[in-house]
Amino acid sequence: MAPRAAIRRVERRDGAELIRRARDSVELHRPWLFPPLTEEAFESHLALLERPDRAGFVVCVPGTGAIAGFVNINNIVRHGFQCGAVGYGAYRPYAGQGHMSDGFGLVLRYAFGPLGLHRLEANIQPGNEASVGLVRRHGFRLEGFSPDFLFIDGAWRDHQRWAITAEMLPAADGPAGGTGRPESDRGWHPESHQAFGAS
Hints:
Oligomer: single chain
Strand content: 25-35%
Number of strands: 8
Shape: globular
Distance between the termini: 8 Å
Number of helices: 6
CATH superfamily: Gcn5-related N-acetyltransferase (GNAT)
CATH architecture: 3-Layer(aba) Sandwich
Mean pLDDT: 85
Number of domains: 1
Largest sheet: 8 strands, mixed
CATH class: Alpha Beta
CATH topology: Aminopeptidase
Low-confidence stretches: 172-199
Structural class: alpha+beta
Strand order of the largest sheet: 6-7-5-4-3-2-1-8
């Protein structure tokens, strides 16, 4: 099957397209997600992604390079923890076409390979069935429930806690245990402009 996604790091040049996609997708994202809708908000967002405890990726459509979604790894903690929290979203008109699922899998492979993480967490509001479906398809397990976990859209929101470790990564998504470096082996570097695609 032809690859449905490629990933690369978010760059400043992506600002105009990301803002346009987010504005076109407001009805798709609410009430779960609030990506930047203005240049000022994007600049603040980009500054966060440039910190060493963050990694931000765009999910692109092979051939056209159009941005179909994003996956961020936030709050990366090193040393004995080696963990991060994932946030993600698809954009119209590409939602539901498989780009996001494939791109999410590529980010997992990068996180457990070159990035050297052992665990990723996804905190999802109850009722966000699309988000739960995505992490479940990629092998995340439900670990618990956190009342009043995050302040979103003016209120503290309950969240389900989902997580995956490198050992749980399905064989189809890459080497178990995070021992492989599939992106590096194929010449993809997270700081470059080159995108890495599914095979």
